[in-house]
């Protein structure tokens, strides 16, 4: 029986109390009335539902076909590389989305509109003996029968087709991660070479103005690209994504310089690749006080005073340093290309 004071604002702590014997006196309310669906009443609506499910499965297959078109076809179009990459990525995402969404929505729609909609209840019991197992088997058979998997052959076969082809794109995604492949080696080689070479001037990004050593004050930081990059007609984005550099000046006595790198800085001015060695985001934040460079993506932190060694975060490798010097007119120029591949270090660097 409920406490008379329950819900009384003068006794806010009061709770209902029920005597043990009272629970048996509650009536089982049973199931609420279950309205039939349109597809249960109208054969035309049922046919329409079938067609809708079929279309969704076909959309999934089209998504998979579109994936292969984007993967193999877009690469061979004559579009400019930057636009091509953006288009290819957009199509790959769209195609994978369609392939998965088509199957998912098709199955949901099938279950909601076409599979039997009656409700049933069954008391739980122990499934330990043979009789119960046989009963369970019978229930499973009924479910398969009622699901229409046997009867609606066209839908079933389209579903099987969509499910069979949908994982194929994953094979190509994972294949590209195989570092033992020739293509992956070629990728590493591409990261090994950038536009930097002896005598190439360091210019500001994006203005292209050359930088004099005397312009670089203590504590300042410049976003830098190689001279000539802005004038490239083809592959500009690709080259830029490898060659971007951060240029900073520190008090020279703060720099820890390893043997062989003594001449790579100009009176405390140092240049490092801006591409994070974790997964390639641009390292964009320079903390003047601590001389740390921060990658905004996963917070890898590089210490400028220790040749951009990783002091925090998931990056597995120091930022590559660009050896620099001054030309006869006082402008900063590269001494050579980077001495190691730039970018994510999960590519084999050996
Ligand atoms: S990409 Fe820089 S920390 Fe992940």
Describe the structure using short key phrases:
alpha+beta; binds FE2/S2 (inorganic) cluster; disordered N terminus; 8 helices; 350 residues; Rieske Iron-sulfur Protein; 2 domains; 11% strand; elongated; 5-stranded antiparallel β-sheet; 4-stranded antiparallel β-sheet; 36% helix
Topology:
Layout: H1 38-41, H2 43-73, H3 81-114, H4 130-147, H5 153-165, H6 168-175, H7 182-192, E1 202-204, E2 221-226, H8 236-243, E3 245-249, E4 269-273, E5 285-287, E6 292-294, E7 301-303, E8 309-312, E9 321-322, E10 324-326, E11 332-334
The chain binds FE2/S2 (inorganic) cluster.
Summary, kept brief:
Helix content is 36%, strand content 11%. It has helices spanning 38-41, 43-73, 81-114, 130-147, 153-165, 168-175, 182-192, 236-243; strands at residues 202-204, 221-226, 245-249, 269-273, 285-287, 292-294, 301-303, 309-312, 321-322, 324-326, 332-334.
